[in-house]
UniProtKB/TrEMBL annotation:
<dbReference type="GO" id="GO:0048513">
    <property type="term" value="P:animal organ development"/>
</dbReference>
<dbReference type="InterPro" id="IPR057854">
    <property type="entry name" value="TPR_WDR11"/>
</dbReference>
<dbReference type="GO" id="GO:0005794">
    <property type="term" value="C:Golgi apparatus"/>
</dbReference>
<keyword id="KW-0853">WD repeat</keyword>
<dbReference type="GO" id="GO:0031410">
    <property type="term" value="C:cytoplasmic vesicle"/>
</dbReference>
<dbReference type="InterPro" id="IPR057853">
    <property type="entry name" value="Beta-prop_WDR11_2nd"/>
</dbReference>
<keyword id="KW-0333">Golgi apparatus</keyword>
<keyword id="KW-0963">Cytoplasm</keyword>
<keyword id="KW-0597">Phosphoprotein</keyword>
<dbReference type="Pfam" id="PF23751">
    <property type="entry name" value="Beta-prop_WDR11_1st"/>
</dbReference>
<dbReference type="InterPro" id="IPR036322">
    <property type="entry name" value="WD40_repeat_dom_sf"/>
</dbReference>
<dbReference type="GO" id="GO:0005634">
    <property type="term" value="C:nucleus"/>
</dbReference>
<feature type="domain" description="WDR11 second beta-propeller">
    <location>
        <begin position="455"/>
        <end position="795"/>
    </location>
</feature>
<protein>
    <recommendedName>
        <fullName>WD repeat-containing protein 11</fullName>
    </recommendedName>
</protein>
<dbReference type="InterPro" id="IPR039694">
    <property type="entry name" value="WDR11"/>
</dbReference>
<dbReference type="InterPro" id="IPR057852">
    <property type="entry name" value="Beta-prop_WDR11_1st"/>
</dbReference>
<dbReference type="InterPro" id="IPR015943">
    <property type="entry name" value="WD40/YVTN_repeat-like_dom_sf"/>
</dbReference>
Length: 1176
């Protein structure tokens, strides 16, 4: 036999449609590279690269309101593998943690019965990656173990909580957006609930603030619109609840900490975006739109793209969509790995996938626009770009545009740095089903005759008149055909590639409608009216039924006799008389006389062939050849020549069963069976083999065994039997029954129910239509706008993702088993055993880049971390790459200076970008100091009250800017209660001398103040006398570790700062804190590469440790240890050992060997004699 490769096994799946309003916030783009979206009670998993729905999760009974992917900021190994884990919350208060690959629920959580307000996995700690924080209305915050479903702690607050946001720079800080204001929590920890109720603040607008009121020249025109908003909207954070007149912005849509800067927060309102400085408690940036403009819905901040002056320019925008009552944008999500891909979710079920592209700008792009130019970076994956190195410009946002320039600075242009412009490109579009109701019909079943070209196509008739054809192997839309002008009521297939569909318009005053019956050819899309000019002003069509051999069609009307058509010729065979009984149910019989007719026709053709061939010729021609020719001829003419006899049964309003036979143009009445007294009005009939099943409006099923002449009635007590269908397949006697409240599957052989589905009991949707898609799977259309392919048990449409037959291959290492994913990662990272990189993987977009021999180890590690969506790897290698290169460059400079090069050559560092300010205290001290100075100057400009001025003065004193601090202290008005203290402080700052007595006195006062709870004031005094190192120690003693690190960065020398930060790293490694991943980043910024290697090995992160040490060796930053060890060995007289280790120390080692060439080997005889004694 010919080996067939047709996949006849269809997976359970869900075809989704329009979204519910409660699904508006239920969308998330995870580090795993996939999008999760709630659609009614289901959750779609979308691959944005191929625009495919690769999984649908179904277990919720209520609408899904929140979805959240788990974070990937942990070290991955076999015991902690790459996995697809998702948390979802619904409107009934249930939270489910999913294993997305298998489509099963890992655990279910239920605390209250109200919709979940917000969800977040705790990512900024190393204790556990299973901690899930949830807001349960109205005012509860609960921390759950997402692995076991155990409640760890619960905390209630006084006001209704709407959402929350964690400080990305300090895991103990979080902000709650409540119905009245903001609650700041500073003692959050996973081990216990917050002890305090938090600090409650309110949003107000000071109308008469002298700092904001600027005189307007008389000739100047009054500003309008957005400019007016920028001038007047000055928002303060206050501690008292403002009056109703003072509150201008009370409809906050979004609250979140800025990931790019410490102590900054973003508030989104319909027409303003406000950037708050939490230290100053005031806005430092406003983005406003005109009153006539389209209001904001959502905003997303990027961690690595920040500016000093918080003024934002429009750089790129995508095409607009047409907004109607039923089509509205719901939510936007951005890829967290690369930050240059976005998805827009629309209420009609569409997912629009946009990609931000960079293209080279013209020389004079738009000089009048006022926008500062954007330049492409001169590096790739954290390292300078080689002259012939391949790169992926659109790999991520920071590979498309370099770090934003500070206003007023000239760009450091180089030969390969180009000005670029950004634009959005629509790269994918997923369309959902339109609004229900639906009429569905599966194409004819798979047989041995059509297996070579069979496609499992499902036709879906919609309310807008179009017919959608889906391929159920992939779940993708095969064709969309605009067939009718009104709602499609039914579809019947007449072949594997054509179908009939009918639609009825709204009735007129006389109850008559316009009927449309269309014949559609799928390959060409050709449609024609099957009934010709008929159809205007007549009773509506109730149903159409195609015969088993696709020869005949019955059209049943509501108040009109039925019509019988020949499908092959498109002619009307019979229009029944007016006295013909009204039809309530009708079904064609599967029995026919086609086989007997074929046998007769074959016998006749064979006889004719024998007559035309002479006896001599007949003896020479094999009879088998003649039979083959005859068979081929007969097959080509069968469809035209043979009209088989078929028959159907129908029932009238009294329940009487009629039997009609059709053969060619002949229609004959058959037997009539009187009604069954136990049955009501018959609503539907199904016939297969020797079994006939009737269902009535009272919920009774009557099973007829035609061969045994027996009938059996079963009352289901489910109400009206709307539709019944037999499953395809020879000998398969399963029956699918549709009721008004659900569906059932029956076994007609045993006359017993197999499975049941009922609204309100195990589903929350109503069934609109049913059919079989294979012999063991059903397809159901429901009023939530979805079409589900289910197993016969009708339990769930979730499935294993690794068993899917997808149209396009999906790149997602998280779908692999743990060992395979780690093997792939190692394969991509390093292949030292071969010397060159080879790769048989064809589905990696950056294949040519990975094969590029110029690609360094650090670049490869960063590239693979992005490819895998490994958050922990990406953070580690970003910092490691930067500081390995920085320390290697510093070492080269010291070598050049030692070799006697000129001062300009030796001290001029090569181009090296600074670490972005989103890394905060991990940045270089010089850049960090400059940023803090710029920030305090901005705060000084924005200050609007005495409290703001005092904060600015305190900050300037800590930064060592005493002259400017004195000026601010002297601005205090005489009627202020702090006038005397500020004046004395100004005198103290200006008269401080470096004499011993004054310093010891001030140090004593500062120590006493710190001991009596005045920590901030004591630290200020210590900074005034250049005792910032002592101040940092006091801060660390009192638990102010972040403040101590900040002060060390801005005031201390590199050596002193390193001591403070090392103590901080030790504190982070302590069991009470257990944040070793943060400690490693701190040590990387200090150049403590040996300690980092030890810690990585101690944490059993062997692959990361090995790659890091390999990178250290390649960049020569560990050569200092080799050099010192060589010196030690030489001092001990071990010349051979010293030579070995000096050879590994680069040029400095060579210099050491040259120095030692002329020296005699110095061996102390006493030392060597004692060694001999020990050895013996």
């Amino acid at each position: 036999m010919i080996p067939y490769t047709v996949n006849i096994k269809l997976a359970a799946r869900t075809l989704t449609g329009t979204l519910n309003l409660q699904n508006k916030t239920a969308v998330d783009w995870g580090w795993q590279g996939l999008i999760a979206q709630g659609c009614h009670s289901s959750i779609l998993i979308i691959d944005p690269k191929t625009s495919q729905t690769i999984q649908v999760l179904e277990k919720h009974k209520a609408n899904v309101v929140k979805v959240k992917w788990s974070r990937e900021n942990y070290y991955h190994n076999v015991s902690s593998p790459y996995c697809l884990r998702l948390a979802s919350g619904d409107a009934s208060g249930k939270i489910i943690v999913w294993d997305v690959v298998s489509g099963t629920a890992h655990c279910e959580i239920q605390e209250h019965s109200k919709p979940i307000q917000d969800l977040e996995w705790l990512w900024n700690q190393d204790a556990s990656r299973d901690l899930l924080l949830a807001i349960h209305p109205p005012n509860y915050i609960v921390l759950w173990n997402g692995d076991t479903g155990t409640k760890l702690w619960k905390k209630s607050y006084a006001e209704n909580i709407l959402s929350f946001s964690f400080d990305p720079f300090d895991p103990s800080n979080m902000a709650l957006l409540t119905s009245e204001g903001i609650v700041f929590i500073t003692d959050f920890t996973h081990s216990k609930p917050p002890g305090s109720a938090g600090k409650k603040v309110y949003i107000a607008s000071p109308h008469a603030s002298p700092a904001h009121t600027k005189p307007v020249p008389a000739a100047a025109p009054a500003p309008t619109g957005a400019k007016k908003a920028l001038n007047k909207v000055k928002v303060l954070i206050i501690n008292e609840k403002p009056t109703a007149e003072a509150v201008t912005l009370n409809d906050c849509l979004q609250l979140s900490y800025l990931p790019s800067k410490r102590n900054h927060m973003l508030l989104l309102y319909p027409r303003e975006i406000l950037i708050l400085d939490l230290e100053l408690s005031q806005t430092v940036g406003v983005v406003a739109i005109e009153r006539s403009g389209v209001p904001f819905i959502q905003v997303r901040c990027y961690p690595e793209q920040s500016v000093h002056e918080l003024v934002y320019d429009l750089r790129s925008q995508c095409d607009a969509i047409r907004v109607t009552k039923t089509v509205r944008p719901y939510r936007m999500v951005v890829c967290p790995v690369n930050e240059n891909n976005a998805a827009l979710m629309v209420s009609d079920g569409r997912a629009m996938l946009w990609e931000l592209k960079a293209h080279t700008a013209k020389a004079a792009a738009n000089p009048s626009s006022g926008l500062s130019p954007l330049y492409s970076p001169v590096s790739f994956c954290g390292a300078p770009l080689g002259p012939n190195q391949k790169r992926i410009q659109d790999l991520s946002l920071n590979s498309m545009i370099g770090q934003t320039l500070i206003p007023g600075e000239a760009p450091p242009l180089s030969s390969n740095q180009q000005e670029v412009q950004l634009k959005f490109l629509l790269t994918g579009l997923l369309s959902g089903l339109p609004l229900p109701p639906f009429a569905i019909r599966m194409c004819p079943p798979l047989t041995t005759k059509n297996i070579n070209h069979y496609q499992p196509l499902l036709a879906v008739g919609t309310s807008n008149g179009s017919v959608l054809v889906y391929n159920l192997t992939s779940g993708l839309l095969h064709k969309e055909l605009s067939v009718h002008s009104c709602e499609v009521r039914g579809i019947e297939w007449v072949s594997l590639t054509s179908f009939l569909s009918f639609a009825t318009s709204s009735p007129n005053n006389m109850g008559l409608v316009r009927n449309e019956l269309q014949h559609v050819d799928l390959p060409t899309g050709r449609c024609f009216a099957f009934r010709g000019e008929r159809g205007n002003d007549e009773p509506p069509i109730e149903m159409i039924k195609v015969s088993h051999l696709k020869q005949y069609l019955v059209v049943v009307f509501r108040d009109k006799p039925l019509e019988l058509w020949d499908i092959r010729t498109g002619t009307l065979l019979r229009e029944m008389a007016k006295n013909f009984p009204a039809v309530t149910a009708l079904e064609w019989s599967p029995s026919h006389n086609l086989k007997s007719l074929k046998k007769k026709q074959m016998a006749a053709r064979e006889a004719m062939a024998r007559q035309t061939v002479s006896d001599a010729e007949q003896s020479s021609v094999e009879s088998s050849v003649i039979s083959l020719l005859q068979d081929a001829e007969s097959k080509s003419e069968t469809s035209q020549a043979i009209s088989a006899r078929e028959h159907f049964v129908f029932t009238d309003t009294d329940g009487q069963v009629y039997h009609i036979t059709v053969e060619g143009n002949t229609v004959k009445d058959g037997a009539r069976i009187p009604p069954d007294g136990s049955m009501g009005s018959i609503a539907c009939i199904a016939w297969k083999g020797d079994t006939l099943v009737l269902g009535d409006v009272d919920g009774n099923l009557n099973f007829w065994d035609l061969k045994a002449r027996l009938s059996r009635g079963i009352p289901t007590h489910r109400g009206w039997v709307k539709k019944i269908r037999f499953a395809p397949g020879k000998g398969n006697q399963k029956l699918l029954v549709m009721y008004t409240d659900g569906a059932e599957v029956w076994d007609t052989k045993e006359v017993q129910m197999v499975s049941s589905m009922r609204i309100g009991r195990n589903v929350n949707y109503r069934i609109l239509d049913i059919d079989w898609c294979t012999s063991d799977k059903v397809v159901l259309a429901s009023d939530d706008g979805c079409i589900r392919v289910l197993e016969m048990a009708m339990k769930s449409a979730s499935y294993r993702m690794d068993e899917q037959d997808l149209t396009d291959p999906v790149w997602c290492p998280y779908l692999l088993v743990p060992r395979a994913a780690l093997t792939l990662k190692a394969f991509l990272l390093l292949q030292p055993w071969s010397g060159t990189f080879t790769m048989d993987i064809t589905q990696v977009d950056m294949k040519s880049v990975l094969l590029d021999p110029v690609l360094s180890l650090l670049q490869r590690c960063l590239l693979v971390s992005r490819l895998f969506g490994d958050e922990s790897d990406l953070h580690f290698w970003t910092v490691a790459s930067h500081y390995l290169q920085a320390f290697a460059q510093a070492r080269q400079l010291s070598v050049l200076s030692a070799e006697g090069q000129t001062q300009s050559d030796a001290t001029q560092p090569p181009p090296q970008n600074h670490l972005d300010i989103c890394h905060d205290v991990l940045c270089e001290s010089s850049y960090f100091q400059k940023f803090q100075l710029d920030r305090v100057h901005l705060q000084e400009v924005k200050r609007s009250s005495y409290e703001h001025t005092k904060k600015c003065a305190d900050q300037l004193l800590l930064l060592g800017q005493t002259d400017r601090a004195v000026q601010l202290l002297l601005e205090t008005s005489a009627d202020n209660s702090s006038y005397y203290c500020d004046s004395l402080k100004a005198c103290l700052v200006t008269t401080i001398t470096s004499s011993g007595p004054s310093q010891s006195t001030i140090k004593l006062v500062a120590t006493n103040m710190i001991a009596n709870g005045k920590l901030a004031e004591g630290v200020q005094l210590l900074c005034l006398i250049d005792k910032a190192a002592d101040a940092c120690r006091y801060l660390q003693t009192y638990g102010e570790w972040n403040r101590a690190a900040w002060l060390a960065k801005v005031r201390l020398s590199p050596a002193e700062s390193s001591d403070v930060l090392k103590r901080w790293a030790e504190h982070l490694c302590s069991p009470q804190v257990n944040h070793k991943s943060k400690a490693i980043l701190v040590l990387l910024s200090l150049g403590c590469f040996y300690k980092v290697g030890e810690m990585l090995h101690g944490m059993r992160q062997f692959d990361r440790a090995a790659l890091f040490i390999e990178a250290c060796l390649k960049y020569g930053v560990m050569e200092a240890a080799f050099l010192e060890y060589a010196r030690l060995l030489r001092s001990l007289g071990l010349r051979e050992g010293a030579a070995l280790w000096a050879s590994r120390a680069g040029s400095a080692g060579e210099q050491l060997m040259e120095e030692g060439e002329g020296l005699e080997e110095s061996r102390d005889p006493s030392i060597w004699s004692s060694i001999k004694v020990q050895l013996l």
